[in-house]
Amino acid sequence: MKKRIAGFFGIVLALGTVCAGSAQNKPDKVTLQLKWLPQSQFMGYYVAAAKGYYKNEGLDVEILPGGSDIIPEQQVYNGVADIGVTWVSSLLKYQEKGWGFVEVAQVFQKSALLLVPKSSSGIKSVQDLRGKKIGSWFGGNEYELYALLESAGLKRESDVKLVQQDYTMDQVKSGEIDAASAMIYNEYGLLLESGYDRSQLNVIDMNDAGVAMLEDNLFVNSKWLANNKDVLVRFLRASIKGWAEACRDPEAAGTIVYNVDKSVSLAHQIYMAKEIAKLVEPKGFEASKIGYIDPAGMRQTAAYAMKYGLLAKAADLKASVDDTYWKKAAGK
Questions:
Q1: CA–CA distance, 185 with 195 (Å, rounded to integer)
Q2: What is the DSSP string of 46-75?
Q3: How do beta strands 101-106 and 161-164 pair?
Q4: 3-class SS shares of the chain: helix, strand, coil, % to 5
Q5: What residues contact 92, with CB distance under 8 A and at least 6 apart?
Q6: Contact status, residue 286 vs residue 244, Cβ threshold 8 Å
Q7: Are 235 and 83 in contact (CB under 8 A)?
Q8: Are 261 and 65 in contact (CB under 8 A)?
Q9: Which bin fits 312, alpha (ψ -120 to 50), beta or left (φ > 0)?
Q10: What is the rounded CA–CA span in Å between residue 229 and residue 152?
Q11: Which residue from 34, 43, 36, 42 is spatially nearest to 251, judged by alpha carbons?
């Protein structure tokens, strides 16, 4: 009888151990807020999810799509999301307001913004923009354009005419504007897909002009970070792996994103993926450095943000950036 009782308690203890182990192995829930709709701009996160990289790090990651009425900073501030994707200039604005955000990784190492005139316009350089109509989306997209014009000694108030631009590229096609703003991974691709050959378009690249501002980064609320440092390191490690895989095989990455939300064609998602890979892992850039926060790029972005009125004072980059967790994730 005593042996049966002992056996019974042994089973109970064993079951208790299994249950406790199951509770301990429960993945940590993380919510990521994107800046825009599902597209290859965010392919590294989708690849990390599809390949099980988050799962392998003990994470259950929910990827929230963005949209025109969704502001990542507000989503993170309100606790709807734990981690957000936004542009550095936008994040600096909210940091100045005292929202308690910290940038933890810089995904895009280069600016994606171009000015695109048709070759027939005769615009080959920044100087050729004098007296021309230039399209801009404004809303935070104009600062590089301002810096570009100033770099050539052009006054935006008198030497050019800045025009509100839509996202169709119809204005530059019709000749309503002489040069259009375009993200290399999206609107420029739309022009090519609409029938234009590259020889029919000229490109003014913000990186080549030396006026680039940093774009997509990862940020968190410092309050959330205080209790989730290990979670963040694991998230960054899996994300870096996802981005590295996506950059190695952008066609596969573009297909993964396409299957998430078939809002654009597969061909466009793959085109986008190939261009995004060049921004995340530029030529000569090591895959192990994906997510690196470049101090010079940060300083230039912050300087333009203040110079052109987005910020009221110089940003305190030491307080607003912390690469500690990226270094741990990347093994630096």
A1: 16
A2: HHHHHTTHHHHTTEEEEEE--BTTB-HHHH
A3: unpaired
A4: 50, 15, 35
A5: 301, 302, 305, 310, 311, 315, 320
A6: no
A7: yes
A8: yes
A9: alpha
A10: 45
A11: 43
Residue 218 identity (one-letter amino acid): L
Looking up tokens 């850039």 gives 285
Q: What is the pLDDT of residues 181-198, one digit of tens each?
A: 999 999 999 999 999 999
Structure-model confidence comparison of residues 21 and 329, the more confident one = 329
Helix axes 250-260, 229-248, angle to 10 degrees: 120
Whole-structure pTM value = 0.91
Q: Which DSSP helix (H) or strand (E) runs through 234?
A: helix 229-248
Which tens digit of pLDDT belongs to each residue from 152-169? Answer: 999 999 999 999 999 899
Residues 6+ positions from 223 with CB-CB distance below 8 Å: 100
Q: Which domains does the chain have, with CATH numbers?
A: 26-110+214-330 (3.40.190.10), 113-205 (3.40.190.10)
Left (φ > 0), alpha (ψ -120 to 50) or beta: where does 205 sit? beta
Beta bridge partners of 113: 183
> What is the amino acid identity at position 151?
S
CA distance 132 to 123: 9
